[in-house]
Amino acid sequence: MPVIGDVARLAGVSKATASRALSGRGYVADDTRQRVVAAASKIGYIVSPDAASLVTGRTKNVGVVIPFVNRWFFGEVLEGIERALLAAGYDLTLYNVAETGPERARVFDFFLARKRVDAVIAVGVDLSGHEVDALEHREKPLVCLGGSGGAAARLAVDDRAVGTLATEHLLHLGHTRIAHLAGAGALDHPASVAGQRRAGYLEAMTTAGITPAPSDIVETEMSTPDGYRAALQLLGHPNHRPTALFAASDEVAFGAMRAADRLGIAVPLDLSIVGVDGHEYAEMFDLTTIEQYPGEQGRLAVDVVLRLLGEGEVADPLPDSGAPLPTRLVVRASTTRAPR
Amino acid sequence: MPVIGDVARLAGVSKATASRALSGRGYVADDTRQRVVAAASKIGYIVSPDAASLVTGRTKNVGVVIPFVNRWFFGEVLEGIERALLAAGYDLTLYNVAETGPERARVFDFFLARKRVDAVIAVGVDLSGHEVDALEHREKPLVCLGGSGGAAARLAVDDRAVGTLATEHLLHLGHTRIAHLAGAGALDHPASVAGQRRAGYLEAMTTAGITPAPSDIVETEMSTPDGYRAALQLLGHPNHRPTALFAASDEVAFGAMRAADRLGIAVPLDLSIVGVDGHEYAEMFDLTTIEQYPGEQGRLAVDVVLRLLGEGEVADPLPDSGAPLPTRLVVRASTTRAPR
DNA sequence: CTGAAAGCGCTTACAG
DNA sequence: CTGAAAGCGCTTACAG
Predict the structure, then answer these.
(1) Are the C-beta atoms of residues B129 and B69 closer than 8 Å to each other?
(2) What pLDDT digit, counting tens, does each position of A233-265 carry?
(3) What is the mean pLDDT of chain A?
(4) What share of chain A has pLDDT > 70, as a percent?
(5) Chain mean pLDDT for chain B
(6) Which of A106, B25, B99, B104 to pair with A7, CA 20 to 30 A apart?
């Protein structure tokens, strides 16, 4: 395993010069640089990131905290982040933390508190004050993508507007009996994604002069199997069947479609369904949805992190700070006019 | 940011003793240790992994190379690996490499070649000789989960047997016209997962004295939308419709079910479908499948890595070396007796 | 059981 | 433009 001293010796320069030649920082005569580079590649020299980090204080490594990897939205975000980070020469250290628990505390208090990452990106996690403090205390830039909990740099779609738009789409089609398959925790955590979408739904309904029956809102984990179970419960009830359904995510919507199928409820004739996300299956299932663009969101989060870390001399670390991330209503065959 | 010198001073010992007390390596008097630990926690000391790595040569970090994160199987594996690594106090650095290309070369020749990871786990990647060499040359333990390309430590299901079993299940139900939705590259890369499953299918057919028509094997990316498209092509053809279909993965099978639905082909009455994986949606869709257990596989891969790294003094680094990972045929409503 | 010293592999002022 | 030296924060023989 060659070290920089080997390169220096072979090139006939000092370690300092070798370092400068290889890193591109500081003045080096052009032919010197070439000799050094040639020497390095000849013996297969690769800099030790640990040694470099120790002196520069930079690790070229970003921690990503994410509650799931196997949900479409999160997987796409993660892929987007990974690609962008790799392109910038950064490593990605993955912390797949669940809602809460000792494991999560360990990630924030131990893993992230060490000097191994330069910054952290939190995807869809509701951060506690303590967690944010732990990072700020270590002077680690923190970029949040969705989720909640105070952080300076936050990128998010307007989930409340998403909920309103989805609901208004259904209202506009003449539906009045509109149920909502909300994300788990929507009621208890109004600031969460699930909570915001629910609030948007409620707002649209209220504006339309409709008060949903309490049983018209059912909470579910945002997965297809859970959405399926929740929808069976909602749609299987003998009375009061809704004519339309706003699912908090496309994955929930797929489950609802399957439940409707199983119960012999025709979509969209008997039941219109709208989801959120723009999942890769949405087109195949003809699902009306509010698209968002998680891969792009991940890339954006990396942009912000890089700016915060001073890579690429850009003045404003948060170009569109405050502006919500783009979304788009895509109407497909799963929604139609309310039955007479 | 306190350093170990601060802890030592506060506890009234040398840095050496503080280091020993904190790491648990070497003799330290019990009360000394307690004083050191108290001092450390009082000032919120956390060891610098970079500095420690530099001297020990160990980073407590494992690189994971994986072609997708947003396919069910890979997502589950990744989650399993992450949990197991975290529990062992290791970090996970994620490299999401696509099939091939310059990006992939950069990961192997630069990122993984540095001293930042102690070992690498390759999930479902077909490694080239050059890639394996690059790692072995750096003396990095390499554990492969599925995929192909020579590596000492390999964990894998017997994909050929999986293909045979799935096909025999259909043969046993009286089907003779059995199509196969194979994974992309099955023909060109016989050693790949897709290739092995295809080979198993062919073997079972041949054993039954049946030669599938070339048009009965269609390759597709192993995703649901791609499976959908491939199945439309396969099932939409006016002649020769198969009565059964072996899909190379559950995700492909879901796409095929949707295609059948769209074409008015009843499953299982007109068409039996069997998949592979034990996807979380399989039960909901009543899909017959050959289950495997990716989360558990990920955990197992970590076990092997840890043994290879000498954590936990276990004699044999590969307990079940050679034995294929468990799988199980789960019969559901998507397969039935062949129509008369 | 504990401490002084060397050293892991780099980078960065500081001189020249 | 280049080099000698110091130092990043730790751990590990080596003495005692």
Answers:
(1) no
(2) 999 988 778 999 999 999 999 999 999 999 999
(3) 92
(4) 97
(5) 92
(6) B104
The pLDDT of residue A109: 85
pLDDT for A182: 98
Distance CA(A13)–CA(B191), nearest Å, equals 49
Cβ-defined contact of A93 to B93 (cutoff 8 Å)? yes
ω into residue A67 within 30 of 0, thus cis?
no
Place of tokens 């119960």: A263
With distances taken from each CA to the C1' atom of nucleotide C8, the closest residue turns out to be B55
Is the per-residue pLDDT at B108 higher than 80? yes
Residue A135, CB, strand C, below 7 Å: no
CB-to-strand D under 7 Å, chain A 13-52: 13-17, 20, 26-30, 32-33, 51
- Taking every pair of Cα atoms in chain A, the longest distance, rounded to a whole number of angstroms, is 88
Burial of B3: CB neighbours in 10 Å, binned 0-12, 13-18, 19+? middle
Q: How many CA atoms lie within 13 A of B135 on its CB side?
A: 28
CB A69 within 8 A of CB B69: yes
Cβ contact, residue pair A114, B70, below 8 Å: no
CB-strand contact A98/D, under 7 Å: no
Q: How many CB pairs under 8 A join A and B?
A: 129
Contacts of B106 in chain A (CB under 8 A): 86
Average pLDDT over residues B143-150: 87
Contact B69 A78 (CB under 8 A): yes
- Burial (CB count within 10 angstroms: exposed 0-12, middle 13-18, buried 19+), residue B74: buried
Q: Which residues touch B131 (CB under 8 Å, ≥6 apart)?
A: B108, B149
Q: What is the DSSP letter of B28?
A: -
Residue B135: pLDDT over 90: no
Residue of A nearest to B78 (CA): A69
Note the pLDDT of residue A312.
Answer: 63
φ and ψ at residue B178, rounded to 5 degrees:
-115, 120
- Token duo for residue A73: 């939205």
Question: What's the pLDDT at B144?
Answer: 94
All domains of chain B in start order, with CATH: 4-56 (1.10.260.40), 61-157+294-308 (3.40.50.2300), 159-291 (3.40.50.2300)
Antiparallel, parallel or unpaired: β B119-123 and B61-66: parallel
On the question of pLDDT at A122 being above 90, the answer is yes
Report DSSP state, residue A110. I
Nearest residue, CB atoms, A284 vs list B78, B111, B258: B258
Read off the pLDDT of residues B151-163 as tens digits, 9 standing for 90 and up.
778 899 999 999 9
Residue B331: pLDDT band (50, 70, 90) is very high
**B106 and A86: CB-CB below 8 Å?**
yes
